[in-house]
Design brief:
Rossmann fold, alpha/beta, 7-stranded parallel β-sheet, EC 1.1.1.-, 7 strands, SDR_fam, globular, 255 residues, NAD(P)-bd_dom_sf
Length: 255
């Protein structure tokens, strides 16, 4: 059983909220009393997610947003604050995977695309969230890195570079904003049973049984388990936690 949090009268902002870890986290914030802004580049998935939450009686705002476009990010964050009056928590989760590739053969287009979403997108979200939180004098941000931000894997150099970069952004910004009552941390998911991982398995880019065998816990993680970590990092229970890159990976990086 996960701890219960009371985020009544608080506002959360979640990117990549149309499915997977983003949707699970948005739902967890809503269940804990927060108003939630859901953003995703996939408008259809976003609408379906929002309907589920509004039908359950939760207060949500949907914003179609490509995080690789800073103007769209700025507009989404500003709209959230204009609608709800404040911004207390954010989970910068939106990310993409690219097919594994020999580092000598990878195209500049693939490198630029994965960086635009996974690293620049997190930078843009955090930048515009901080502008509001700085004026407000409080806030908590969780950036989504990966076990790929903590280790290397052959064939994944560009993807892992983005996730290492997210940790660098997180640590530096955390030191800058901790004195201003804003906590910034990162979560590092392992192999999680999400639509993105299912798509990788279907394309032959990931072997499910081998992935499970690599995890000491002997199973894939769930989106709800990532949501639980994010909510803790945003909660008063983590009030002295600043600048961490928290592995939630079934023991992968502990081996």
């Amino acid at each position: 059983m996960n701890p219960a949090y009371d985020f009544t009268d608080q506002v959360a902002f979640v990117t990549g909220a149309g499915s997977g870890m983003g949707l699970a986290t948005a739902r967890a914030f809503a269940e804990s009393g927060a108003a939630v802004a859901l953003t995703d580049v996939n408008a259809e998935a976003l609408d379906a997610a929002a309907k589920d939450l509004t039908d359950a009686g939760y207060q949500v705002l949907t914003l179609t947003c490509d995080v690789s476009d800073e103007d769209q990010v700025a507009a989404a964050v500003d709209r959230t604050v204009a609608t709800f009056g404040r911004l207390d928590m954010a989970f910068n989760n939106a990310g993409i995977q690219i097919p594994p590739c020999d580092a000598a053969d990878e195209s500049i287009e693939a490198f630029d695309r994965v960086n635009a979403v996974n690293l620049r997108g997190v930078w843009a979200c955090m930048k515009h969230q901080l502008r509001h939180m700085r004026a407000q004098g409080s806030g908590a941000i969780v950036n989504c890195s990966s076990l790929g931000g903590l280790v290397g894997i052959p064939g994944r150099a560009s993807y892992h570079a983005t996730k290492h970069g997210v940790i660098g952004l997180t640590k530096s910004a955390a030191l800058e904003y901790a004195p201003r009552n804003i906590r910034i941390n990162a979560v590092c998911p392992g192999t999680i049973d999400t639509p993105m991982v299912s798509d990788m398995i279907a394309k032959g880019e990931l072997d499910r049984e081998r992935a499970i065998a690599d995890l000491p816990i002997n199973r894939l993680g769930t989106a709800d388990e990532i949501a639980a970590a994010v909510l803790w990092l945003c909660s008063p229970g983590a009030s002295f936690v600043v600048g961490v890159a928290l592995p939630v990976d079934g023991g992968y990086v502990a081996r």
